[in-house]
Structures are given as structure tokens and as C-alpha cells.
Amino acid sequence: MIIRFVIFFVLILLVDLYFYQSLRVLTANWQPRSKQILFYSYWIFSAITISLLILAAAIPPAGAGRVFQKYMFNFMVILTFTKFLGFLPLLIEDIVRLFRWLFTYAGKQTNVPGEHAIPRAKFVSWISLGLLAVPFTTFIYGMVKTAFDYSIKRTTIKLPNLPDKFDGFTIVQISDLHTGSLPGTHPYERAVKLVNDLKPDIIFMTGDLVNNIADEAVDFVPVLKQLTSPNGVYSILGNHDYGDYYHWDNEVDKAKNLQHVKDIHRQMGWKLMLNENVLIKRDDQSIAILGVENWGHKLNFPKYGIMAEAYKGIEDAPVKLLLSHDPSHWEGEVIPKYPDVDVTFSGHTHGFQFGIEIPGFIKWSPSQYVYKQWGGLYQEGKQYIYVNRGLGFLGYLGRVGIPPEISVITLKKG
Q1: Which of 61, 68, 79, 381 is the most exposed place for a label (fewest CB within 10 A)?
Q2: What would the pLDDT profile of 285-334 be if each residue is shown by its tens digit?
Q3: What backbone torsions phi and psi does residue 366 show, to the nearest 5 degrees?
Q4: pLDDT, tens digit, for every residue of 146-180?
Q5: Burial of 147 from C-beta contacts in 10 A (0-12 / 13-18 / 19+)
Q6: For 109-155, where are the alpha helices, taking DSSP H only?
């Protein structure tokens, strides 16, 4: 661990040294006093950020310390990444300058040091600075503002076999809460109010309540238990809820943590669907809700879900709505084996928390290179899948171009 930190800090220092050279070029005509102020400001800022990162690594990862660690690490990653972007044009130019100098030196064979040195082009330094400033500002804005800028996305799905009394039935779907990534409960207090104000007929939460451990969600119980609808809140587990990405001392502790996660769902009054189903009735008509544990068809995500168990007993239901965290389950098993599952509700992708979406014009995210169905509504024959882009975030504590989502899906007969 210490070796990794040393390597990380050495890389930060090297990027800092290299990037500082572009600032020297841009300020070549400044007064000596101004250059001195720039020098001290630049290196004092670097020293402070590195010191804060060391402090973040040293304090116990609990409570406010955990939040400080996460945000400080994200800030440093953003800063280093954007400096690296600025570093690339400088590196490319230096390689070109080296070859130009070697060619000039070989042609004139001078012994005067520096006589044929090739000066750094000022416009390259400006490009370098721009490549730092634009993404740095964007990613910081994505942490401070966009991460909690909840978007309500409305979709209508027409089903010819929908019972008449369910015509206009509204579903609110949320997903990927990742409570362990949030600085406090207040963002979800607002999200819960937004959901309740929509007055849905039913609420689905399609997995990943936590990042790794159950304790991350404990403080959120009083907030999330306020979610309400006439037909209740139905939830499933996501790949992060099993604690598979955390180092446990033994399997017993891991099993206890998973049980704690399940208990928290029940404490909030949510119906946790563990490879099972339930019928939602309106007078003499009904539709079926199925919920499976995580089942991934890509990237070696675990296959805990047992679709056959979730399907058992509702074969004759006129409409079947499936909650399955990983959207790859849809093409991997649902479509080929269960053609009468009308709509699947998934999450998992987060829309990569980065992309561009302009309705009717462009819809792009790096997620699409891994998941064919990564955000929004998709159709294959008579079957649909809706992929929620997530309410929370993981890794990068923000969102750029892909806001956190509250989905409103209305079922219509037709």
C-alpha cells in the first residue's frame, strides 16, 4: 500500500513539474515579481492538495472522515487527470522539438551549446492550459451541481394485453442509490419528496442500495422509508449489495452483512423480491411483478438470480413486469426463455455518469460500448426494457451530461 502511494505521489509531482513548464512559457513576458507570485502560488497549491490527500488517507474511514476521503480522492484524481490531458500536447511537442533539434544539429555540427535549441511554441501551451481548464471545471461542476440535479424522465409503454383496470397505471422507478457515496441524507430527502409528489401507483427500486457494506444505508432508513404509493415499494438486490467487492475476514461476516442489507429493505417497508413474484390486483383483474437477484450476462458479473423461481405460479398472468438489476439479463435470458415477460426494469449502468443526451438529436455514453441497453426504453419484438440511469453515483462522485434519474413509466392499453 505504501509503495502504491509513493508511486502515485511521484506521478503527481512529475505531471506538476511538466505542466508548470507551459505556465512559464505563457508568462515569459511577466515582471519578475509576478513570476515569483505564480511560482509560489502554483507549488503551494500543489503541496496543500497533496497534504490533504495524505490526511484523507490517514483518518479513519467512518462518518465525516469517509466523506472527506471520497471527495478529496475524487478531487485529486480530477486534478491529476486534467493535468495529464494538458501534459499530452507538451509531450508531443517536446518529441517533435527533439527530432527537429537532432536534425538541425546533425546538419550544422555546431559546438555552441543551445545555439540551435527549438523554443516551445506558445500556442501549444495555450492548448495545454485549455485541456486542463475545460474538463477540470466540467468535472468539478459535475460533483457540486449535476450529481444532485435530479431529472424526471417520463415514458409511456403500450401493451395490448394490459387489463382495462390497469390502463394508465403509473410506475416510478429509481435505481442505484449507492448510499455509501453520498455526503449526507439531505439529497435523498429531496429525491423522496419528488417521487412522492408524482403520486405513482407503485414504486420500483432496481438494486444497489449500498456500495459495499450495509452500514452505509443505516442513516438513510428514516428518509427512504417515507417513499409511499398505494401498491407499495418493491425492490431487488444489485451486484454491489452482496459485498463482493469488500475484503471480509471470513464468509460468516459477509453473510451477516448481506442479511443486514436485506433487513434494511424490510425496515424501510420495501418488499424485497428474492427470485419471487406477487400479483397486483384491481378488483377482479391483476398483473404480475417478478423480482430476481442479480444476474449478469457481461463482464463476469454474478448470476445469483433464478428466473424460474420468480416465474413460478404466474404463467397465466396477462402482464408480467420484471425487476432485474443488470440489463444484460434481458438479452441473456429473458428474451430467449421468457417471451411473455412484457417489461423489464433495470439499472446498473449509471449511463457511465458521463455522456451527451439531446432528445431527438444525440444519445451517447461510453456505456453503449459495453451495454446495448444502457439508458431509457428499448424494444425487441413485443418485449420492452427500461434502463434507469441511476439516482446515485459510484467511483466519480458526480455526473457529466447524464443527470441522476427518476423514471415515470405509464402503462397504456393499446
Answers
A1: 381
A2: 999 999 999 999 988 898 999 999 999 999 999 999 999 999 999 999 99
A3: -55, -20
A4: 999 999 999 999 999 999 999 999 999 999 999 99
A5: buried
A6: 122-144
Closest CA to 330 of 284, 374, 391, 277: 374
- The pair phi, psi for residue 379, each rounded to 5°, is -135, 140
> Which residue, among 409, 194, 207, has the nearest Cα to 319 in the 3D structure?
409
CB 75 within 8 A of CB 46: no
For residue 16, the model assigns a pLDDT of: 79
CA torsion, ordered 250, 245, 211, 347, to nearest 10 deg: -130
CB 201 within 8 A of CB 233: no
Sheet containing 320-323, strands listed edge to edge, beginning at the edge strand earlier in sequence: 276-282, 285-291, 320-323, 343-346, 383-387, 376-380
Give the CA radius of gyration of the chain. Answer: 27
Q: What are the CA-CA distances from residue 261 to residues 26, 206, 218, 412 (Å)? A: 55, 14, 9, 35
What residues contact residue 21 under an 8 Å CB cut-off, 6+ apart? 90, 120
Question: C-alpha angle 270/276/281, rounded to 5°?
Answer: 70
Can you tell me whether residue 225 is helix, strand or coil? coil
Per-residue confidence band for 108, with pLDDT thresholds at 50, 70 and 90? low
Locate 248 and state its grid cell: 471480509
The beta strands (E) that lie in 50-116 are given as none
Give the CA angle between residues 50, 52, 57 to the nearest 5°: 95
Instruction: Dig out the grid coordinates for 269 from the structure.
Output: 417497508
- Amino acid sitting at position 387: V
Nearest-angstrom CA–CA distance, 379 and 41: 55
